[in-house]
Amino acid sequence: MEADGREFLNAVLQDANEHHKIDRARLYLFGHSLGANYALYLSILYSGIFAATALHAGQFNAPADYALVAQAQRRIPVGIFVGTQDTLFPLDQVRQSAQAFASQGHPTVLYVLNDHNHWYYDIAPFVNQQAWEFLSQHNLGNP
Asked: Mean pLDDT over all residues of the chain?
């Protein structure tokens, strides 16, 4: 993805801007589950494009990935939602991913959802509202 990712992403954003007025200082990432994992990596690779990231039930795949956080171009805000009963993304592992960002100076918030498992769809309205409240506080000029 790194080889052509930035060019592709810029082409998508340019096309979107031709059809809709977009504020390039307020582009956000959101992901769930494996999409959340991917959003963490995109946050590092494209921290100069995305203003902030929110995710539900995601983490880095391996402890070695924590070192990647230091490579981010800017300190991107990250909000992570996880349930205490999520067996696919256990709280302690998700907490380590959040701490990897926080330890490198990224504004990081971990939202722990008591008695919640991995199932996003029942809790989506709540998570989406909270995620938007987190994301909308940030733009590229104001981490």
From this structure: 93
What are the structural domain ranges in the chain? 26-135
CA-to-CA distance for 78 and 107, rounded, in angstroms?
6
84 touches 112 (CB < 8 A): yes
Say if residue 125 is exposed, middle or buried (CB neighbours under 10 Å; 0-12, 13-18, 19+).
Answer: exposed
At 131, the pLDDT band (50, 70, 90 cuts) reads very high
pLDDT (mean) for 11-31: 91
Q: What is the mean pLDDT of residues 117-142?
A: 96
CA 11 to chain centre: 21
pTM across the whole model? 0.91
Specify whether the CB–CB gap between 27 and 10 falls below 8 A.
Answer: no
Give me the amino acid identity at 44. I
CATH code that applies to domain 26-135: 3.40.50.1820
The 8-class DSSP code of residue 24 comes to G
| Own/partner long-range contacts of 4-11 (Cβ < 8 Å, ≥24 apart) | 5/45, 5/46, 6/46, 6/49, 9/46, 9/49
